[in-house]
Amino acid sequence: MENASAEVNRQFEKIRETRRRRAIGWAGLLGFILFVLIQGMSATELLGGDVRIAYFVGSLREFFPITFVFGFIPFLDVGQYLAFIRREELLYNPEIGGLLFNWPPQLYTFFFQELGIFSIFGEAGITLAMGVVGTILGFPIALMFGVLGSERVTPFPFNFIFRGTMSFIRAIPAIVWTLIFIPFAGLGPTSATLAIAFDTIGNLGRLFVDELEEIEEGSIEAMQTTGANQPQIVFFGMLSQVKTSFIAWTLYILEINVRIAVTVGVVGAGGLGLVVESQRGLLNFTNMMATLFCIFILIISVELFSQRLRSRLRSDEEVRSWRELIFGFPNRMANSMLK
């Protein structure tokens, strides 16, 4: 009995010692994070820098114009936002839209002469077009680099040629690629689109490589036993396993590319980003906020579209209609909070 009691005490002491070491380790990690945080805040001038909180709070009145209903009830004056959005054609171009919505609709002119699928959305259409075209142009090269960069297809160190190229592309932000392409295509949507395409090659190609590295060996070995050559193994044994993931990652990169299109627009590439920068330069913060709302609408729309396509690719998930997705959101949010 005494030996058993001593053994139990030793086990308890061992558990307490383990907990003490774990607590010391967590305390050391938190202390290190705090140390790095303070050092970083000093480097970014957050400590003692020119941070004017009161001035920022006061300037919010210019971003959010307030009108008083009945002289005393404050209300956000969205009319100023809508007037600027309509005047600058941020979300809708009536000249192009008239071709489609007038009776009879001039479909041939809209689709083939004016090429109005993106133009109908005004400045938002330019931003959306840069993201979509950049993704489409970058996809085939990203697929090629992703396949050839996998060690399952190209032996080391030759696969590192493609991995290194993608790493080099990722190391340079899209906004810098835009500046690089200015001598080639001038400052505008063309340079931004090429920059987004290059950025897609680096980011999407890397995701493709990671997916190919995780595939199952069974189907590949089965094809090898049947005498299949290397291209057949790649297309039917490897890509067939990851096609759903590849489509999902491509849609995810499309979402990112539309955001990048807004960012590169700030340096003069066009679209909603250019409108934000021009209104900031004119100190028209109300118009700037109206443009930001348009950016929000554009990004949310792209994410909803991407989410619907991805959900249809997943056979284990219930497919919802667009109407149910939008109008059923409050219900789903309430249910998730009650879980």
Automatic annotation (TrEMBL):
Residues 124-306 form the ABC transmembrane type-1 domain. It is found in: Cell membrane. One of its GO terms (molecular function) is ABC-type phosphonate transporter activity. GO terms for cellular component: plasma membrane. The chain crosses the membrane at residues 23-43, 63-84, 128-148, 160-184, 282-305. CDD domains: TM_PBP2. Keywords: Cell membrane, Membrane, Transmembrane, Transmembrane helix, Transport. It comes from the Archaea. It is a multi-pass membrane protein. The keyword Acyltransferase does not apply. Its main location: membrane. The keyword Cell membrane applies. PANTHER family: ABC TRANSPORT SYSTEM PERMEASE PROTEIN P69 (PTHR30043:SF1), PHOSPHONATES TRANSPORT SYSTEM PERMEASE PROTEIN (PTHR30043). NCBIfam families: PhnE. Belongs to the binding-protein-dependent transport system permease family. This is Phosphonate ABC transporter, permease protein PhnE. It comes from Natronocalculus amylovorans.
